[in-house]
Q: What sequence folds into this?
């Protein structure tokens, strides 16, 4: 892995090129108080400007290359030969422009060759801001100020990066890094490098695509080891996983499911908006992560208490009932006129009474809670007098100091918490959270505690041309790995098949992906005549006869789809006729261990049936888990040719789990590549 420390924490900076963009980099370095050397390079030279890179006093730690894409290649080559620490490639017109200019991809390949082992950011990116050391390669305005510690934000979008630095929420931003095309240095590699800076308290990554999944796995484990939380804002609704739609699995695991499964696998919480992203980073900066999702809310309005409860509804956030200690201390602080609950409306009896407010809010804090939220909206200072709220702020700060618990001031509207107040609270260790919706989302994200899974992901491999196997062949392959299948026979004479299997039986037409829709499956046939009649109405010449499976407790779907962007997605869902009706599914990545699969099954609505519902017997859970693990084992051993595998339904009885239908799409001869 390339060493990015010189680039991101430079002592000497070279700015190569002229014009407004390069002049802006010089100006921004001056404004941030960068204490190192800043050198200009331009062919015209003069007035302290070097005419060539080779004329610099020493190889620069970091270089901003603000010249055209063709000249950028030469500059990168010279810097690499001199042993420079790294460079930001500002120019565009590389792989991102390949659709308009076919030479773009070739130029990017040449750029990588020129850089060699020297780290580069971009091309087509603004660069980075290091607000800890005042060091930056940044050709535009930004909102960062010098900080002693703070969060790091990484994004491919330079414009989004600028906007995030302009936040007025009191969030200390230590690093802002834009990644552009990520021709050489990925977001995962940059984030891993920033983990080595002990001043970074949390990392937020705005992700458009993962790229090298193995690098993300390394990052997640390193973050876990360092105790630095990572959160993500993942965008992009890809249809890659739905490219092959011969099964239900493709639709259930399509779109964004693979990306979510990757983040779950890595133990990285996901946000869906920039405000929630920033508020989560702020919460993580102060707390380092919450110990649980159990919180309390205290406000002077019943409306706010109800709003807090409703905002948390449907989220993985819990307001536990007050315990005896809380009730006693709150009653002593608030008197008999206040109904005690969580969320709590403390009314306004104690307003402006600093000791009483401190006692009440301290009483709400409890070791069993991860966070106590004090809802407090501060009036606009331009048309109102907000000084009356100073006592409330002081009470919150004092309660935090006295109890040692995690305390947050939360506003119902983001704009009702001035930046100066946010900074005051942050210095005292109280979390200022702008907006109740954002606060609840931040709590949910900060309370996620799954460690990253250590087993390496199964890579998707190259694209391949898949063919749908006959059901009998698919079942035979799965059976060889331990999947239980019904007694069956296949061939062209349905009557002979029926006599071989026995009654009752199911008759299916072979070579048809969606048998039910094609009228190619009939269940519960009891005699030879009904079998013959059923076969005459099927659009096929070959048949599969199978024993009927009685005593079903629940029907499930087990499927694996090759997702080119995220690996192999394992889907568990309600099966049979309920698959499309309920859309009750969970997605994991291959490989997932038995415990992970068991937990995922418990996330299904039909899990109640698996475990026995309203006194009825449950299903054979071990048999279900055995089937899932067998499917995974088959996929892992045959990954080079697998496109899809699906069992639907897996008929789960009290004593076994039987694959009543199976589908496979595989490339013959070990996987033909479809470029």
A:
């Amino acid at each position: 892995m390339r060493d990015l420390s010189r680039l991101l924490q430079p002592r000497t900076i070279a700015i190569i090129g002229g014009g407004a963009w390069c002049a802006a980099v010089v100006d921004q370095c001056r404004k941030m108080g960068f204490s190192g050397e800043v050198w200009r390079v331009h062919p015209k030279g003069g007035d302290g400007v070097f005419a060539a890179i080779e004329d610099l006093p020493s190889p620069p730690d970091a270089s901003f290359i603000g010249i055209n894409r063709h000249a950028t290649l030469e500059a990168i080559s010279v810097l690499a030969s001199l042993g420079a620490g790294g460079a930001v490639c500002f120019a565009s017109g590389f792989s991102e422009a390949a659709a308009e200019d076919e030479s773009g991809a070739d130029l990017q390949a040449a750029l990588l060759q020129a850089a060699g082992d020297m780290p580069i950011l971009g091309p087509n990116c603004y660069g980075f801001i290091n607000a800890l050391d005042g060091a930056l390669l940044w050709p535009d305005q930004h909102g960062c100020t010098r900080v002693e510690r703070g969060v790091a934000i990484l994004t491919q979008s330079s414009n989004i990066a600028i906007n995030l630095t302009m936040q007025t929420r009191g969030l200390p931003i230590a690093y802002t890094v834009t990644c552009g095309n990520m021709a050489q240095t990925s977001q995962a590699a940059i984030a891993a490098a920033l983990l080595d800076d002990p001043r970074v308290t949390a990392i937020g990554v705005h992700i458009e695509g993962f790229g090298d999944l193995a690098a993300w796995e390394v990052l997640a484990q390193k973050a876990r080891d360092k105790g630095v939380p990572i959160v993500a804002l993942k965008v992009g609704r890809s249809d890659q996983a739905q490219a092959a739609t011969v099964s239900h699995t493709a639709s259930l695991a399509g779109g964004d499911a693979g990306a979510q499964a990757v983040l779950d696998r890595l133990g990285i919480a996901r946000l869906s908006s920039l405000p929630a992203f920033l508020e989560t980073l702020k919460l993580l900066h102060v707390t380092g992560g919450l110990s649980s999702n159990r919180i309390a809310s205290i406000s002077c309005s019943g409306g706010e208490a109800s709003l807090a409860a409703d905002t948390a509804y449907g989220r993985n956030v819990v307001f536990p009932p007050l315990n005896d200690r809380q009730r006693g201390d709150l009653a002593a602080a608030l008197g008999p006129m206040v109904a005690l609950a969580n969320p709590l409306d403390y009314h306004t009896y104690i307003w402006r009474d600093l000791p009483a407010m401190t006692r009440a809010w301290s009483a709400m804090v409890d070791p069993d809670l991860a966070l106590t939220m004090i809802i407090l909206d501060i009036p606009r200072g331009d048309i109102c007098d907000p000084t009356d709220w100073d006592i409330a702020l002081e009470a919150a700060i004092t309660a935090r100091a006295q109890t040692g618990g995690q305390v947050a001031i939360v506003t119902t509207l983001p704009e009702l918490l001035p930046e100066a107040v946010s900074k005051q609270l942050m210095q005292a260790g109280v979390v200022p959270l702008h907006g109740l919706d954002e606060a609840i989302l931040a709590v949910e994200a900060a309370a996620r505690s799954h460690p990253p899974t250590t087993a390496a992901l199964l890579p998707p491999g190259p694209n391949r041309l898949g063919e749908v196997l006959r059901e009998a062949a698919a079942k035979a392959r799965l059976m060889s790995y331990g999947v239980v299948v019904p007694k069956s026979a296949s061939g062209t004479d349905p009557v002979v098949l029926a006599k071989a299997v026995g009654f009752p039986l199911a008759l299916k037409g072979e070579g048809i992906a969606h048998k039910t829709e094609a009228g190619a499956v009939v269940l519960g046939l009891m005699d030879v005549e009904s079998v013959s009649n059923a076969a005459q109405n099927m659009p096929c010449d070959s048949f599969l006869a199978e024993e009927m499976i009685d005593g079903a407790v629940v029907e499930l779907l087990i499927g694996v789809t090759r997702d080119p962007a995220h690996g192999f997605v394992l889907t568990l869902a309600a099966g049979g006729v309920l698959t499309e009706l309920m859309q009750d599914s969970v997605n994991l990545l291959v490989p997932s261990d038995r415990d992970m699969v068991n937990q995922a099954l418990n996330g299904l609505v039909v899990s109640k049936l698996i475990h026995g519902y309203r006194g009825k017997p449950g299903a054979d859970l071990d048999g279900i888990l055995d089937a899932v693990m067998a499917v995974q084992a088959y996929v892992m051993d045959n990954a080079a040719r697998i496109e899809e595998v699906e069992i639907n339904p897996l008929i789960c009885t009290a004593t076994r789990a039987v694959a009543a239908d199976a589908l496979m799409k595989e490339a013959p001869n070990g996987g033909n590549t479809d470029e």
In short: The chain has four domains: 5-208, 295-310+317-415, 487-547, 554-670. The longest helix spans residues 621-637. The mean pLDDT is 91.
